Amino acid sequence: MGDRAAADGGEAVLLRDVVAALEQLFPPELAQSWDQVGLVSGDPEQPVRRVHFAVDPTLAVVQEAVAAGADLLVTHHPLLLRGIHSVATTSAKGATVTALVVADLALYVAHTNADSAAVGVNSALARACGLSDTTPLSEPEGTPMGLVGDLSESVSLQDFALGLASRLPAAPGGLRVAGPPQAPVTRVALLGGAGDSLFQEVRASGADVYVTADLRHHPALEAREEARGGPPYLVDAGHWASESLWLRHAADDLAAALSARGASVDTHVSDLCTDPWTFTIGARDVRDLEGDDA
């Protein structure tokens, strides 16, 4: 996804200053209570000249960041969400932690706080959906989750999904859609990443379609049964794809925040697709549904 050069060739900023800018953009207090966000590795006093952005802190992403000359890797998903008892390289997480430390590469995580931030994951997905004015879909414990808003004009479910697909990065699973292709869509609810816990809020919002990911068989089937064939229709856009749109915006927002403080860094957005799936066989295409109202 390419590089963006720093505004000048001046001295590197310190990691603590970059962290301060990130926490201004994505306040840690917006994170869910179960989440693990913030600085994972690195010395706050170390210099940062290049920041690498990715969805997942996989070993391949760490290696990509090192090859790109990054001093800081910013990811959406945590590396150490649950407790571990060893960082030996015999495990995937151990190998990743070791690679970070050996390369002197700092890691910072902005997860559910980036989901809920005003300039976060969901706002990036909302722009891809064609929404401009949005409101929170839900607010558990005072923290906004998801967004809902209206398109400038009604479109068919098929055209909406095709338009969204054109703005998302290509992923092996593509988009899965539940609903009649010609059904009208005006009001859109969305939640980047896994979102089948918010069906009740989606119904209450009056949305015609719900854009999210990781929709499991039984919750999705029950949601369609409750809808009696009508709205809200469902679009599963894929976990990685629905959240990766945020990366470029985050890189630009960080550069702007540091520039306002009289500092600058190079930014680079990962080119790696970390969707765990590789390819799909036998998927039903929308063209197979011609004349089918189901």
Automatic annotation (TrEMBL):
Pfam families: DUF34_NIF3. Gene3D superfamilies: NIF3 (NGG1p interacting factor 3)-like. GO terms for cellular component: cytoplasm. A divalent metal cation binds at H76, H77, D115, H239, E243. Keywords: Metal-binding. InterPro entries: DUF34/NIF3, DUF34/NIF3_sf. One of its GO terms (molecular function) is metal ion binding. It comes from the Bacteria. Homohexamer. Belongs to the GTP cyclohydrolase I type 2/NIF3 family. This is GTP cyclohydrolase 1 type 2 homolog. It comes from Kineosphaera limosa NBRC 100340. The lineage of its organism: Bacteria, Bacillati, Actinomycetota, Actinomycetes, Micrococcales.
